[in-house]
Batch of 2 targets.
Target 1
Amino acid sequence: MKTNTLAKSEALDTKIQAGKFLTSLLESDIAKERLELKKNDKIELTATNNTPYIFVIVAGVAGIFSNTNVAIDFAGEGDLLDYNIYSSQLFGKALTDEVTVWRFAQSDVFNKIAESSEIQLQHYHMLQTIQRRLEKKQIQATLDTKNKGCSVHPHISDALQSESR
């Protein structure tokens, strides 16, 4: 029982720290751009000079797709999208009627992280959150394959339910 309580406490701390990281980015002096997207608008993951971006989802749901249109990831409010290594092979797309994101140059974010041990800890927790999200998707995909079933990501499920009303 203590182990379960400790795990829940660590998960809550990670969520709080991840939120602080996003707040630190938004309150910092680094350049950022707020984007208001409509459903199916494309999200360019790099600038025209191939500078990678990092995105923070403020509202709505966005998806990351391969150039062959295979869904790779979905993200909703409070999630971070950072696919710089693969950005030439991927694109983002707004999946709900309205999606609001903040866009940062990746190099600016990394410089901000390097400046502060507190932001480094917050970033570490954000990475843990992303890792857990991806692990859950992988586990679900494995289970779905075994059961030959289909499951929908919670953000997508919520979006689909609200559209059908």
Target 2
Amino acid sequence: MHAVINRSQFAKRWWTGQIVLRGVVLRGLGLAILALCAASAIWLYRSVHQFPAHDPRAGEYLAAIVVIQSWSVGWPLLIIGPELFRPVPVPRSSKFTSFTTRGNTR
């Protein structure tokens, strides 16, 4: 336990934790979210095509929202994985940014 606390205090990387996080957890989460998407899409298809024709119910709207959200979150987690959370360098000042940064006198 002392070694784990030491690593966290001195910002040392724990390579086994990174392998587990990179290889299994995020991509497994993406796969699970896509499985939820598939189950919701199947249920939604069967619900919409019930005989007799009916007006959409609240559950069908909710299932459609779940399908869209889980599709848009599941694929990036499965394909890109932990690279999704990689820090991206942002230039301090640029002609393309419209916000003011701290310490900027303009």
